[in-house]
Design a protein that fits this description.
This protein has 448 residues and is an alpha/beta fold. The protein has three domains: 52 residues, no CATH class; 132 residues, 3-Layer(aba) Sandwich (Rossmann fold), CATH 3.40.50; 164 residues, 3-Layer(aba) Sandwich (Rossmann fold). The protein contains 18 helices and twelve strands. Helix 1 runs antiparallel to helix 2 and helix 6 packs across helix 18. The protein binds NADPH dihydro-nicotinamide-adenine-dinucleotide phosphate and (2Z)-2-iminopentanedioic acid. The site of NADPH dihydro-nicotinamide-adenine-dinucleotide phosphate has 26 residues, from helix 10.
Length: 448
């Protein structure tokens, strides 16, 4: 069987078995199509059913999360944990709290995480979880009661060497604190490495808060340098205004770029003088407010309703850092028309498949999420190492390791693309480089 026939066969099986799961099917289709040359070179992977096994999560846990709101009413949410692949290490991946969360979204994220974690070079498998709970507008006490109820089931399935969750959309230091406190209480064990993204006073790692955004910029800078350019003097548009967007904005600005826009799900702000990040951090990290409030402090900036319109701003570098599917083909065409040179993904799967094709066709440099945003989970793995050793590295030590990991991810992705006959296609190279390590580990461990 040729590589193409094998991939087509598996994609059609996945479509039948996962009906209507658009995000999951998109993620699988994108990855599998770029692996065709790998199967032509390694028919032994076909014989061992590597793909058939890889597209089926090892374990999926769905559970009821009842909690009591501030008015005394009973609320019920649905909890998810998908333990996708443990070939190279314990399941590792974030928890997302957002009303849109469903089985398809958690599965796509877990699938992607498997290759991303492989790319980091560290021994971590792939997993993801979350709930359709909406933290917006909830009091701290409500978030705490939800987190405790969520953990009262999740703790049965996670562990230092089994599965190590962390943050994602809607889960930051506050939520990880509540989750960890409850885990410790019901397990009677200070297993600090069971969650990452912890506060610095109880086993967190310096640099984890910054890691995804900084890592995205380190990766993108390496890609730019390799093409004889850099962030210096570039105009940058970043979507989102959460953890990833804020620290991408900080590092890009430090490297001499001017970030002119940030957004949230309601709209975007445009500041031609460059975003004042202290103002954004006060709104988003301290008050949990809306990006629109930026105008209260910087009245010369503009606010535009509707987050998708952010891609209409003329820029050299676009960094989508909000959510999946946020940069579609129409947005890609506008970016291209306005002369964008680079699109590099901080969010997971923010660019739709047709938009990626359009960008690549037009010669825009493309940094795919599983490579470009791997800095967060890489730093999580560094946090696990520090917890195991019961010591803490300095910010500089962590940052240095992060930089090295991101440069290596770029180089390995670039080399894999060349080796498999598609030089410059970092998306294909990242898929192949991430996949081969997982496939080799699965081959070595037999049919399990
Ligand atoms: P945050 O919760 O800190 O911020 C999310 C941001 O994205 C907010 O500005 C939010 O706006 C916006 N957003 C969320 N959902 C939507 C939506 N449906 N439409 C438009 N805007 C939306 O999350 P993170 O910054 O941590 O995560 C952002 C992305 O980066 C996600 O795709 C995540 O999976 C990915 N990622 C995160 C990592 C991490 O370490 N945190 C690591 C690697 C990837 P609003 O407030 O209006 O909802
Ligand atoms: O998508 C991701 O890589 C994350 N949300 C980070 C996961 C982690 O375990 O740090």
């Amino acid at each position: 069987m040729s590589g193409r026939e094998y991939v087509n066969k598996v994609i059609s099986e996945v479509e039948k078995r996962n009906l209507g799961e658009k995000e999951f099917l998109d993620a699988v289709t994108e990855v599998l199509n770029s692996l065709v040359p790998v199967f032509d070179k390694h028919p032994e992977y076909i014989k061992e059913g590597i793909l058939e096994r890889l597209v089926e999560p090892e374990r999926q846990i769905f559970f009821r999360v009842p909690w009591i709101d501030d008015k005394g009413n009973v609320q019920v949410n649905r909890g998810f944990r998908v333990q996708f692949n443990s070939a190279i290490g314990p399941y590792k991946g974030g928890l997302r709290l957002h009303p849109s969360v469903n089985q398809s979204i958690i599965k796509f994220l877990g699938f992607e995480q498997t290759f991303k974690n492989s790319l980091t070079g560290l021994p971590i498998g792939g997993g993801k979880g979350g709930s359709d709970f909406d933290p917006k507008g909830k009091s701290d006490r409500e978030v705490m009661r939800f987190c405790q109820s969520f953990m009262s089931e999740l703790y049965k399935h996670i562990g230092l060497d089994t599965d190590v969750p962390a943050g994602d959309i809607g889960v930051g230091a506050r939520e990880i604190g509540y989750l960890y406190g409850y885990y410790k209480k019901i397990k009677n064990a200070n297993d600090q490495g069971v969650l990452t993204g912890k506060g610095l006073t109880y086993g967190g790692s310096l640099g984890r808060t910054e890691a995804t955004g900084y890592g995205l910029v380190y990766f993108t800078e390496e890609m730019l340098n390799d093409n004889n350019t850099s962030f210096e003097d570039k105009k940058v548009v970043i979507s989102g205004s959460g953890n990833v967007a804020i620290y991408a904005c900080k590092k890009a600005t430090e490297l001499g770029a001017k970030v002119v826009a940030l957004s949230d799900s309601n709209g975007y702000i445009y500041d031609e003088n460059g975003i004042n990040l202290d103002v954004v951090k006060e709104i988003k990290e301290v008050r949990r407010g809306r990006i629109k409030e930026y105008l209260d402090k910087v009245p010369t900036a503009k606010y535009v309703e509707g987050c998708r319109k952010i891609w209409e701003i003329k820029c050299d570098i676009a960094l989508p850092c909000a959510t999946q599917g946020e940069l579609d083909i129409e947005s890609a065409k506008i970016l291209i028309k306005n002369g964008v040179k680079v699109v590099s993904e901080g969010a997971n799967m923010p660019t739709t498949l047709d938009a990626i094709e359009e960008l690549q066709k037009s010669g825009v440099m493309f940094g795919p999420a599983k490579a470009a945003n791997a800095g967060g989970v890489a730093c999580s793995a560094l946090e696990m190492s520090q917890n195991s050793m019961r010591l803490s590295w300095t910010f500089e030590e962590v940052d240095e390791k992060l930089k090295e990991i991101m440069v290596n991810i770029y180089k390995n992705s670039k080399n894999a693309a060349e080796e498999y006959g598609n030089p410059g296609n970092i998306l294909m190279g990242a898929n192949i480089s991430g996949f081969v390590k997982v496939a080799e580990a699965m081959m070595a461990q037999g049919i399990v």
